[in-house]
Amino acid sequence: MKVAYFSNYRDGTYDASFGVDNILALEAAGVDIVCRPVTLSAMIPDLPCPVEHLERKTLNDVDVIIQDMKPHLYEYKGGVKNIGFLRWNQSSFHKSNWPECCNLMDEIWVTSTDTMLAASKSGISKPIKMVLHGRNSDKFKKQINPLPLDGLKHKCVFYTISDMTRLQNVTGLIRAYYAAFTKTDDVVLLLRIYDSSRNEGQLVSLVRETIEDIKKTTHIYPELEDYPKIAIICGILNDDQLYQLHKNGDIFVTANRGEFWNIFLHDAMGFGRPPIYTNICGQASLAINLGWPISGQPTPCVDTDSNEDGLITGKDYWFDPNLCDLAESFKDAYQSWQNNKLGKIQKDVVKAAIAMNYQHMGNFMKQKLELGESE
Predict the structure, then answer these.
(1) pTM here?
(2) CA dihedral 327, 328, 331, 336 (to 10 degrees)
């Protein structure tokens, strides 16, 4: 069986990482795979491409085409099996043309039961199969030093890696942090914020303004300097520096409203950092109730900063984390850190992250492909 994989893996974006990982996972499983890039960004960065060697292979005699892109870009090719890789976080997308585009495919792959339900609810009639995401686990075994950051020594460092969209809900994260701690607690919230549409100075200003506004509207302390410490990193970090950042932290935390798969959470677990996370979509598939899963409830979506051409509407739902539960999880995790009781959780999350490596997840996808051949 020969597989052709099409995605935006050369775009240098967060989403591009998923294509790279899936291609390398299939290669690790011994699948005869060739790949071609699809450009979704205005500018393609001049970066090393880990799958460049697979671009040199021809498309001759391909049996399966996997299209890892937004469904409105799907194209059906006769004579081969067509698989669409669907990535989605909300309750449905029935107001768009995506269901019709997905139904052009022979099969749809997703990374969580929540996405599977959303696809079914939206009217996808083709077989929907769940595959988990693999990461290169070799990096988790390397000796990596933390970044040289001031103010973290002898502190319990909660950290996140996120953008500032409503979907990622950094404001909710900060509010829960302020509700959980005082400035006398030995804690720091380390925010690594990225946004390609703003330069570093603009982004730092945005984050600081957001923090100051939250302080003024929570009314917990009379003076703004009485709140527990928050540290900000908004500069460009390469992959190696992001791995170092995981070493700076003690507990990874995210209050997002849904993530089809969270690579930063995956890596945090691989580096032995227990997570606090919203228990929905791919995060639930990945963390399997380890650490501190946050409860919540479905609420109507609001216009997001990256609305997919009107795909997200108030008729659909996303997962709104319970910030009271999040604040209690902050406190519980801090107590575990104080009492040196993170050891077992650290071992468990490393084991879970390493189990989802290229070889294992590539074999999982390979089995799905072989099962499809026999159907």
Answers:
(1) 0.93
(2) -140
